Amino acid sequence: MTKHQLGQYFNIDGILFNLKYLFSLNSIKPDLYFKSIVKINLNELKNQHSIKYVVFDKDNTLTLPHQNIFGNEKIKDKIEDFKNVFGQNNLAILSNSAGSKDDLNFKEAKEIELKTGLQVIKHKYKKPKVYNEIIDTFGIKNDIKNSEICIIGDRLLIDIIMGKEYGFFTILVDPITTSKDNFMVRMMRKVEKFLIKNKKMI
């Protein structure tokens, strides 16, 4: 594993952030759950849930791990639907690797933007300490409620917790694949599966 990839997974801020929720696990239940982003009803998301902006996790939500193109054609087509419904400028990717301080000259972020047509949020710190960067990327003013921002990701203890902390609307999806997970991620997924099952989160 490269230093760049290790920086993505060893996230001390995220670990400490998770500890905060150990005694209030019901507060991290996602608002919606789908097997894949392909299954999300976009008109319902926009009209019923009043979503105006959407932030996607990258690895295992949009792309295969450590790759910078969509995981499959269905995901690629679904993102075009997202663009049509919400507007391209109201969508963004948030990754703990691409766009972070570990991404030298934002080389990876630029490649992803070119290949996906989605802007990548640039951030100094890793999730969850990215609230201001999300707001600034979209140019959001005070007339927008945090609940009108949607976070979509495959990690309960990263993406969903972050979204809940900031009052965002949250959608949990299954990972595209777990075959390339490293040891730390595999362990965390076991914890997440346990919490989801025993707390009836989905």
Descriptive notes:
Strands 1-6-5-2-3-4 form a 6-stranded parallel beta sheet, sandwiched between helices. It has 202 residues and is of the alpha/beta class. It has one domain: HAD superfamily/HAD-like (Rossmann fold). The protein has 8 helices and 6 strands; from the N terminus they run H-H-E-H-E-H-E-H-E-H-E-H-E-H. Mean pLDDT is 88; it is low at 2-10.
Strand-helix topology:
Layout: H1 3-9, H2 12-20, E1 32-34, H3 42-47, E2 53-57, H4 73-86, E3 91-94, H5 107-116, E4 119-120, H6 131-138, E5 149-153, H7 156-165, E6 169-173, H8 183-198
Parallel strand pairs: 1-6, 2-3, 2-5, 3-4, 5-6
Number of domains: 1
CATH architecture name: 3-Layer(aba) Sandwich
Mean pLDDT: 88
Strand content: 5-15%
Q: Biggest sheet: strands, sense, closure? A: 6 strands, parallel
Order of helices and strands: HHEHEHEHEHEHEH
Radius of gyration: 16 Å
CATH-defined fold name? Rossmann fold
Unreliable parts: 2-10
CATH superfamily: HAD superfamily/HAD-like
Number-wise, the strands total 6
Task: Output the number of helix runs.
Answer: 8
Q: Termini, distance in Å?
A: 33 Å
Strand neighbour order, sheet with most strands:
1-6-5-2-3-4
Helix content: 25-40%
- Name the shape in a single word: globular
Question: CATH first level: which class?
Answer: Alpha Beta
Structure class? alpha/beta
